[in-house]
């Protein structure tokens, strides 16, 4: 699985009359760039803020604003559009639209399409704080949620009125990530619990300094997102905060040190089906972290005493699949096989970080998969999301 998870999907983008409608244009563009077929349906209020031609230019598809527009190829048969949809994404969703949907009304092309579809519905509210917090709006959202709709809560920040509060349309990355999660719920990892670690640990010297490595966390984040997109319930234990699109639909635990990561992983693997340790855990840490910043004074040398960190993969055991990583600079096969055996792994993913495009912070990776069964699979240079899916393909096989 190498293509974008939204590629080939038909997304009905429902746009209602909010000042946040300009963000919906950016959302439509990002959906198209991901390979989705976007069918835009606008309320009359939305068309007061932005012309339908904007969405038509971005999606290369006609825009529905009137159920009975004879010029449209699909406006009369809105049921056909509802049936073609893989998901209906309402962004922005105003208090008025939410209320009409909660009443089951079908008084315009958008509400009629929503009522006629069996596809999952994602509602992204955007309105003033008091409107969002009003009991009527909250009750209407609760009713939609009871009917199976997924609600993407609005964000806090500056609103169109000039006030600050909750009510801003959610981050577009969060919306896209939620869409990916919803569409992947029936994937080949549905019902599975997967724990992924990511990033290089930070071992404190004092409140200012720490020891770390060059791991960016990109590979671990790609694995977590890919597992979510395939239906897994994912816990990501990471030293690097994931972007909003990755974080949506994932339980994220932020840690810093190896000891913190060990504790978080031990909690997370209870009941898990798989542990994928993509994090670059520091082998050593300072014996003691100073409570205050250490001053260099006049010394020309500074001796730092280090002690060994716990080996997380070797020390965490359970009835789950264990997959590890080996970032090497030489003797890839020898070192990877030694780690595979020493840590009791089912699979180890090894790469030479000195190879161009395969090192830290890169968006690509060339890995070799070493199986406990003895099988060895060298993969070509691939984008990290493609590497993630290749690893998960093997995980599916290991899970039986």
Helix content: 25-40%
Quote the CATH topology of the largest domain: Rossmann fold
CATH class of the largest domain equals Alpha Beta
Alpha-carbon Rg, integer:
25 Å
| Structural domain tally | 2
Our measurement of the CA-to-CA distance between the termini, rounded to an integer number of angstroms, reads 18 Å
Helix-and-strand structural type: alpha/beta
Global shape: elongated
**What's the CATH architecture of the largest domain?**
3-Layer(aba) Sandwich
Number of E strands: 21
Assess the beta-strand content as a share of residues.
Answer: 15-25%
Textual characterization of the structure:
The protein is of the alpha/beta class and 400 residues long. It folds into two domains: 10-183, Flavin prenyltransferase-like (Rossmann fold); 193-399, Rossmann fold, CATH 3.40.50.10300. The chain has helices spanning 21-33, 44-49, 52-59, 78-84, 95-102, 109-116, 129-133, 135-146, 172-183, 218-229, 244-247, 258-268, 312-315, 332-342, 384-399; strands at residues 10-15, 37-42, 87-93, 121-125, 150-151, 155-158, 164-168, 193-198, 203-204, 210-211, 233-238, 251-254, 274-277, 284-286, 306-308, 321-328, 347-352, 364-365, 368-371, 376-378, 382-383. The protein has an eight-stranded mixed beta sheet, sandwiched between helices. Strand 9 (203-204) and strand 10 form a beta hairpin. The longest helix is centred in the C-terminal third of the chain and has 16 residues, at 384-399. The model has no long low-confidence stretch (mean pLDDT 95).
